[in-house]
Amino acid sequence: MSLRIVVTVKYVPDATGDRHFADDLTVDRDDVDGLLSELDEYAVEQALQISENSDDDVEVTVLTVGPEDAKDALRKALSMGADKAIHVEDDDLHGTDAIGTSLVLAKAIEKAGYDLVISGMASTDGTMGVVPALLAERLGVPQVTLLSEVSVEDGTVKGRRDGDAASEQLEASLPAVVSVTDQSGEARYPSFKGIMAAKKKPVESWDLSDLDIEAEEVGLEGAYTVVDAAAERPARTAGTIVKDEGEGGKQLAEFLAGQKFI
Amino acid sequence: MAEVLVYVDHVDGAVRKPTLELLTLARRVGEPVAVALGNGAADTAATLAEHGAVKVLTHEASEYADYLVVPKVDALQAAVEAVSPAAVLVPSSAEGKEIAARLALRIGSGIITDAVDLEAGDEGPVATQSVFAASFTTKSRVSKGTPVITVKPNSAAVEAAPAAGAVEALAVTFSDKATGTKVTARTPRESTGRPELTEAAIVVSGGRGVNGAENFAIIEALADSLGAAVGASRAAVDAGWYPHTNQVGQTGKSVSPQLYIASGISGAIQHRAGMQTSKTIVAINKDAEAPIFDLVDYGVVGDLFDVVPQLTEEINTRKG
User: Which of A187, A235, B20, B195 is the most buried (most CB within 10 A)?
Assistant: First the structure.
């Protein structure tokens, strides 16, 4: 038996950097350092754990859609232990929204071949959290998402989904799309050996024509949504800061009473 | 006036507050038609009518509880086909966003998630979003198909606006994908008696400075004196001091209450992402240099173990 896992990852602007918009109101990816989205590290980690805990022959492929620099995200995932990588890159992809991204990912996943897709719970830039559900819809396979615990055995994926109102145990037959949360288990750091090995691992590059996708289906033109305006939030006006000299709690109560919270 | 579909989030017929807020926003762009699914669906009608629903489409079936997401997408798609609405509004819960996304794809529409405001525009509803850890505000709209928009809790006031609220049965045929993901067990969350974190008017949060699970009792005592929900930073959750369901921040809940009180929280970008849109922000921290103080309306530099109990006592005294 073999198990083919495709992990979708995203190269995002560093959240601790000064993120902003480009003139065309897309996310500026040039002026801010990028990295593998932290939330996707959890997806890579769970893929590696499934691989390590399996008696089957497991192959872990990491897949990204993004500009040239996005290779850095793939390299990081390979150095963590993934087997190979696919980079979908095309100038026509600039400005692609979630619906378009899910199209590109789904076509690439189908071309790569898969039994299990694992994604992070959301990207740290767009933070929509909808791509896993869109992939399941497009691929026509079960959606087993937002798992804090995941296991694969005998062609079945099981996991725990912690919702607002209840914690649910889920179960579906493979092939399936899974997403994991930051509660699923800490992601490993790449070892020196892993970093060296990653340099020799294969990274395939595909463009839109490899996936039979027309340019009009993606990019800003193909987007189903339009951003009309983006404005920096005004800085909050400086507040009152007091040092506690023994009455700090009472002073705070006075402030809250003045604001009618008490 | 065009009809606007509103997906109803309810627990056995009890409508959750974000749905009522959606009705307020829906009335700005059309006539609200509510869609309530699953056990107790018809029991939602009276509340929805009070808040502006002209119609309530209902369907009860065990599939909604027994299988994940897809049965609800099938039903919402049936409602879209029956009503041909001007827009579809869904509460921005984790599940709500998944339902909305799959629906949008099926009906050939764009999707906007986590709107914090919504108004009518010449080219359809305009959604305001708060992005990049709330450092930017954007205005967006769906440019293809029927706009599908999810809206965050606390984005609008709940308003009484009595309407007919006529109950109609929705005809739903489940797709062959509906039973793909089985829910084999469900453990309801234990009620703390406190308000829901994302819906609360006041949130009191504790972070690394709380320094132990047992010390969260003083955070809870302050929360209870104000009738507030309790939140926790990622550091406190990762340390195992408080449940993940209470985490505020990028990978937890995003809250936007009237008042947010941060105790022993330094204010890392990941935390700010989840609370920066709060109306009034108050912080208590030993470190005068903590970035959280850049956000506050009022800050106390001091030991939270002195300040918080004194504050709680003072509030309880003032309440008499």
Answer: B20
pTM, rounded to two decimals: 0.94
Mean pLDDT in residue range B186-196: 90
Distance CA A88, CA A66 (A): 6
The amino acid present at B41, given as its one-letter code, is: A
Say which CATH topology domain A2-222 has: Rossmann fold (3.40.50)
Give the pair of three-digit tokens for residue A132. Answer: 């896993």
Residue B85 has pLDDT above 90, yes or no: yes
CA distances B22 to B28, B90, B116, Å, are 10, 8, 11
Which of B100, B104, B315 comes nearest A253 by C-beta? B315
Q: How far apart are CA A121 and CA A181, in angstroms?
A: 5
| Secondary structure string (H, E, C) spanning chain A | CEEEEEEECCEEECCCCCCCECCCCCECCCCCCEEECHHHHHHHHHHHHHHHCCCCEEEEEEEEECCHHHHHHHHHHHHHCCCEEEEECCHHHCCCCHHHHHHHHHHHHHHHCCCEEEEECCCCCCCCCCHHHHHHHHHCCCEEEEEEEEEEECCEEEEEEECCCEEEEEEEECCEEEEECCCCCCCCCCCHHHHHHHCCCCEEEECHHHHCCCHHHCHHHHCCEEEEEEEECCCCCCCEEEECCCCHHHHHHHHHHHCCCC
Please name the residues in contact with A202: beta carbons below 8 A apart, sequence gap of 6 or more: A84, A85
CA distances from A201 to A78, A197, B302 (A): 7, 7, 53
**Contact status of A236 with chain B (Cβ, < 8 Å):** yes
pLDDT, chain B, mean: 96
CB B178 within 8 A of CB B71: yes
- Cα(B196)–Cα(B194) distance, rounded to whole angstroms? 7
- B122-145 average pLDDT score: 92
Give the amino acid at B257.
Answer: P
Cα distance from N-terminal residue to C-terminal residue, chain B: 51
CB A62 within 8 A of CB A83: no
Q: Using CB atoms, pick whichever of B114, B138, B244 lies closest to residue A183.
A: B244
Domain map of chain A by residue range?
2-222
- At A148, phi and psi to the nearest 5? -100, -10
Our CA-based measurement puts residue A40 at a distance from the nearest CA of chain B, in whole angstroms, of 12
CB within 8 Å: B269 and A256: no
3-state secondary structure of B172: coil
Identify all chain B residues contacting A15, using CB atoms and an 8 Å cutoff: 133, 250, 269-270, 273
- pLDDT score at A40: 97
Cis bond before residue A175 (omega within 30° of 0) = yes
pLDDT, tens digit, 9 for 90 and up, residues B235-288: 999 999 999 999 999 888 999 999 999 999 999 988 998 999 899 999 999 999
Predicted-complex ipTM score: 0.94
Q: How far apart are CA A88 and CA A105, in angstroms?
A: 9
A32-49 pLDDT, tens per residue? 889 999 999 999 999 999
| Contact (Cβ atoms closer than 8 angstroms) between residue B122 and residue B143 | no
